[in-house]
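Input structure tokens:
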């Protein structure tokens, strides 16, 4: 009977430990929860360290830098785990306080005002805030203002009241960007999509049913599923009082283009899009659109590309929130080890799309 060697047994224990996944993903959100040590180098690191991935049979996990040092390991000179963990926590707390300050302010604070509040230079604050939050202070303020407006439009006595309560300095500034924020007029949004027209069609492709919907701004939904009626019900739930118009001949042509992109990847989808999401989500989705067909990127790589290496999990959540399959190719994002996981419309469809793109 073959017995596993001690190295093989240790490798199995390491890979089965949930912390190994954080190390492979270089998950900055795990910093401070544990450190990992490498026996062959005698060094311990933070989970997000950019050093070359170690072999699992050489890895051990420790609850703190002190525990790793007690076991005979020395801190990594690259990620400085004995120093950085406290600083990362302090910066995260500072940024959380600034976010609350932004949310409670009557108008959008300037970068200089935030820097004074934090006791930093504006340049340093901008860099710290973006690294911790994944967006700049201005992007966070705008996203909060838009979120507050969407939540206040329905209960407010008037649209003007909702606009000023959300922190807009003037109604004119809001109306200039209202379509981008809401995807329809403020009145229509307030009434659950009333008076807004959403054209749609449901078709069939080799991956199942496919629904395509378009607002006045652009394509607002490309959904895949097993049941055409379930996709239609989801559209009705999203726009409960909008006028849903189906079956137009010109719109059927649009659906045919989307189906062609499923069946023959590489044909491209150059369509006007109605992209609705937070500032961070939109940055992620823009990065996804830059991945060429036939290629993939990991969640960690996308986080690096948008300048927010600590936001790996937030990147994964943004991919899961994408409502525009194919047009925003979240199927091209995989785990750091190349494994396929986490697709809103099912990992089997994700694998099929990747296979077709690689062949094309």
């Amino acid at each position: 009977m073959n017995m596993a060697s001690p190295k093989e047994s240790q490798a199995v224990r390491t890979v089965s430990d949930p912390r190994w996944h954080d190390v492979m993903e270089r998950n900055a959100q795990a910093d401070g929860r544990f450190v990992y040590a490498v026996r062959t180098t005698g060094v311990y690191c933070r989970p997000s360290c950019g050093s070359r991935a170690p072999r699992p049979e050489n890895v051990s996990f420790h609850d703190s830098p002190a525990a790793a040092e007690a076991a005979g390991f020395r801190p990594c000179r690259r990620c400085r785990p004995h120093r950085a963990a406290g600083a990362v926590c302090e910066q995260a707390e500072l940024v959380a306080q600034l976010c609350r300050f932004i949310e409670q302010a009557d108008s959008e604070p300037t970068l200089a005002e935030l820097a004074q509040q934090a006791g930093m230079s504006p340049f340093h604050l901008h860099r710290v805030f973006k690294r911790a939050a994944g967006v700049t202070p201005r992007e966070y303020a705008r996203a909060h203002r838009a979120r507050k407006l969407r939540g206040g439009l329905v209960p407010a006595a008037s649209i003007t009241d909702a606009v000023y309560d959300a922190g807009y300095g003037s109604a004119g500034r809001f109306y200039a960007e209202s379509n981008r924020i809401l995807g329809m007029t403020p009145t229509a949004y307030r009434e659950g999509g009333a008076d807004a027209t959403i054209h749609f069609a449901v078709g069939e492709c080799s991956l199942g049913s496919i629904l395509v919907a378009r607002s006045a701004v652009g394509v607002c939904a490309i959904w895949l599923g097993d049941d055409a009626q379930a996709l239609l019900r989801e559209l009705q739930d999203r726009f409960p009082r909008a006028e849903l118009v189906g079956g137009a001949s010109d719109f059927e042509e649009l659906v045919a283009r989307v189906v062609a992109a499923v069946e023959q990847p590489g044909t491209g989808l150059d369509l006007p899009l109605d992209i609705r999401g937070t500032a961070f989500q939109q940055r992620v989705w823009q990065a996804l659109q830059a991945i060429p067909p036939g290629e993939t990127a990991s969640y960690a790589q996308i986080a690096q590309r948008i300048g927010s290496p600590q936001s790996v999990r937030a990147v994964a959540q943004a991919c899961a929130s994408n409502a525009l399959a194919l047009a925003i190719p979240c199927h091209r994002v995989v785990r750091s080890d190349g494994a396929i996981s986490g697709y809103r419309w099912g990992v089997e469809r994700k694998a099929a799309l990747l296979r077709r793109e690689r062949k094309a």
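The longest helix spans residues 81-104. The first strand starts at residue 35 and ends at 38.
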